[in-house]
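Quick one - inputs below.
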Amino acid sequence: MEPALAWIVLGLPLLGAATLAAWPSEPPRSMTRVLGVGPMVVSFLLTAWLYVQMLGENSDDRLVVSRVWEWIEIGDLSIDVALQVDPLSVMMMLVVTGVGSLIFIYSTEYMEHDRDYRRFFAEMGFFVFSMLLLVLAANFLFLIVGWALVGLASYLLIGFYYEKPPAVAAAKKAFIINVIGDLAMVIAAFILVVELGTLNYLLVFEAAPDGLGRGAVEAVTILLFVGAAAKSAQVPLHTWLPDAMEGPTPVSALIHAATMVTAGVYLIVRTHELYELAPYASDLVAITGAVTLFLAATIATVQVDVKRVLAWSTISQIGYMIMAAGLGAYGAAMYHLMTHAFFKALLFLSIGMVIHGLAGAQSLDRMGGLGRHLKFAYVATAIGVLAISGVPGTAGFFSKDEILASAWDAGDLGRVLWLVGALAAGITAFYMFRLLFRTFSGPEPEGGYGVHPQPSRWPMAAPVAVLAVLSLWGGWIQVPRGWTWIIDWLEPVIGRESIPGQQAELVTLATSIAVVAIGAAAAWWIFAVDPARPKRLAGRLVATRRLLEDQFRFDHVYDRAVVGPTRDLAEYLYRRMESGFVDGLVRGAISLARGSAMGLRAAQNGLVRTYVFVMISGVVGLGALLAWVVTR
Amino acid sequence: MSGVPLFWYLMLSFGLFGLGLVGVMRRRNPLLMLLAVELMLNSANIALVGFARQWNNTDGQIFALVVMAVAAAEVVIGLGLVVAVFRQRLALNVDEMSSLKG
Amino acid sequence: MPMVTAIILLPLAAALALAIPDTSRMQARIIALLAAGLSFAMVVSLTVRLDRDAAGLQFVDQHSWVSDAALQWAVGVDGISIWLLLLTSGIVLLGLIATAWRPPEREVGFLAAMLAGEAGLLGLFAAADLVVFYIFWEAMLVPFFFLIGMWGSEGRVFATTKFIIYTMVGSLPMLVAILATAFIAQDTTGQLTFTISELRGVSFTETQSTWLFAGFALAFAIKVPVWPFHGWLPDAYRAAPLVVTAVLAAVMSKAGVYGLIRIGVPTFPDGAENFAIILSVLALVGIIYGSLVAWRAPTMRMLVGYSSLAHLGFIVLGIMAFDIQAGQGAVLQMVNHGLVVAAAFLIIGLINRGTAGDHIDRIGGIAAGAPRLAVVFLFVSMAALAIPGSNAFVGEFFILTGVFRHHVWIAVLATIGVVLAAVYMLRLYQTAMNGPAFGANSRAIELRPVDYVVLSPLVGAMLVIALWPASIVGSTRAPVAQAVAPAQIAAERPADQIERPVVPNPPPEALPLPGDEPPIDEVPAPAVGEEASP
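Output:
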């Protein structure tokens, strides 16, 4: 195995992005395409080669740390610029570069009409570099660096249309929530440095069982999880992701669905040695995941913006992964991460074809009956919906069922979470089929589409087709009671993971098929059978719908409880404290000096006779005093 | 040792000083004020000379000479300033010479 | 060759040369750039030749002047001060280049004052003697007095007066403290000396140490400034010409923190230990206060100015933690902050090209017309908010690591300042650059070739530090370890965290003479600060 390949894979997207950024003026579009897509595809091919090489190795030899130079030596702490190439990072690299390449190809067409063609590819390339750095880093410091740089890339791409105030606001929100997450991780790193004196993964994991006290390890894992929750949009740090849909659709597909937002799952799997030492933190992770997946699924049922539906479904699906990771089913979490990347990218890209075809419309109210015009997008979306709902045989079916089955086997807490997950699976089927029906079937919206829906050309269709195939058949790499390629592949990293028992498999299988069927049928009955029915039902459950449409009012509460008071405090400090107290002290001293000077100034009236008089009086007075002293 | 007793020297000196003092305080014309200052300086000279005679010590006389030289220099500068002010066609009134006052 | 002396005197000589009447603008520019450039080149050559593992001063240039009064000229550099010399000479050089392109009125005088200011700062950072330090500390004020007072904008007289008086209020107690230090040291060692390295070994009682430290710390705290001594900062930053503001914020603010790590902490370990928590808490308050105020500040300059207050709080925290990692981080952060804040002020200068004022809320959407500037501005903003991966992150990370080791909650609370940094820097960047375009002629703002000349060295330096922080940090270990070791002993830190200085300190000739009764046995060659347990 050649670890230098990993460096090349890491460097190519950055090189492409830097070249594009440094190009003196807007380069020709063909050149932008070459510089944007080329490095991505080459990176993917090299990653594939790396994977093949790794397959040829013994499973014990599949971990290589490639160090280039010592980044810093400070105090007793030494940190290297190093990459850790192992099955976990290679799996993430494959997902990132593979799905990334498809989305890059798709973007060449999707962004064709945009003024900032070059900037788009430069920023996307920078994102891919950061994401690869995140998954390849060999120590916590560079993990944090990658973590923050993907946040920066995400900020840039959410705010891609920087003339639009909502996009700018959404970008800022995403950035700041992610900074909060970064800082939690930074504090976790402080604890590791102080307690263990190293940030190197391997050394930390080796020393942790003996070197970290119980409290320290719980603190580290909880802090890392705060970082993970911020990045992966878990409750209560999830509010940025729905707003992030202001970015271009390929961005939403790559960053806010397939790769970056799943970094939290990667982080937990990467540091699973620590989580295994921290039962409370692990339970917290699992419960947070379950709460998130349920809340997000319910919110998704009432959203009107197509991309927001997908955003909430992303949050919900990541909730599944986080829950699995918290319960110790790391293989299942990674498995779902991979299949989710396929079908969520597929959904975003096929819905993106609809948005592109309608020249930017995103509201479900402006859609309906599009299946007649955009057949390809219809089929692709349908496949994505089947996969995410977990219809038997599709990718989502295998991975989601494995998570649920693992939960079933994970004690009392696991059973409760299993119930939540199974219920949410039904809701998932409901809202995804709702999306499908409201977009593609039924009558045209009142007032037409605004523009005639345009079918897409091959650069958009081809990646969608590939993703559709992966979403349909990609789940077959791990089949219960059959073969376990994912778990086998990850074994050098996460150890031999126990596979769910037969009872768990069967109960889950039956339940999930039932709830999915119920959810899909409900959506069909409400949205597809009778076009007037949604309107008739709109009067029911008004309060609940309002609560869901307001997304449980998290934003409202944050605004009232955190942002508002802080701003008031800052305003107070600036207006009162700064000019009143700090400056007031100074001005007070000045006016004291000036006042006393003004008093004395009266003596300096400029009249010579006064001076003479005062002087003579002084002389006489002093003489009298002297005489009195002498004669006394 | 006979002659005018010291007392009268001092009385003369005191009287001249009082005249000069009143002159400086009452007059507003810089020329007259200069004259009054000269009067005061000379009263001091008389006192110095008187004391020198009393104690048979020439220091007082020498000092009186020095004072005269200084007074001469001072008058030159003072008159020069007065003439300069006069050239500016300003009133010769010290109370109104206040352009440097803060 | 007395290189360090030459580095200091060259700008001074050039400043004097410019004072010759009838110097033409072109001559003045050439002289100024030559002097600043040559000085910078010499600093670079020193940097290259520096022994990165040595703790003591190198390239020392020492000449006795009035030996009875122990007055002397003593300058030298070590792994800490070399970076500040580099920063000073580099930033002033760039400032002069920027000035040459947008010349102010009375340009010759401006250049002369800048050069004199540079000489003052260089001398301050290179001083190896308390008197030399003090002289440069005060002398530096004169050119800055004129720079703000003559070339400033509205309110400059008030700002200058306030600035000078504030600084004097601090520096006069420092003069008293300097004299007291020397005389008390004379009482114990029998030798009158102002040499900093020799005074480091002297044992003061805890009371003496506390009062002397307080005398120095007040001057340093005002200069930094540490909250709540920052009253001069908004006015001076607002009134000064932008280039001068850049130098003030980038370089002069380092004088205070440099004084702390060079003189305050190593010479008066007991006093420093007594003030450690107070100063740390003030720094912490400054971090949060500065960040909050920066968030609401109306103009760009004020925003960056108050952000300086916050960033310098981190540096003070790092020094007062008495931790090698935190100290090294603090030194690195001095350089980082200098680079970032200079770049930020220079960018604000560019934006001022296309707008009347620099009110944040009255401009927007510059990115559309000035995409290149937007990229550079974004880069600088990210460095200013210390995003992981930037140069400033390295400094802040290690400062806070060191602080965390000793005061967990101070470190955790300080991270709030990092979140707020994101809030205010994004406000600055987004309101100016994004959104609908209005209020500014963005074509006039877009980078021109000369702007690249000025900005690219700064951006390049930030990149180099981000990728290879060891370049700076590597040379700071020995000096920082030596500087904080006495305070660590005073704070009764675990022995494994303390690195004893390698250099015998004080040097043998400064040892007490036989017959002097003061605590002879307490000043053996390598041990420092053992008076902690008298």
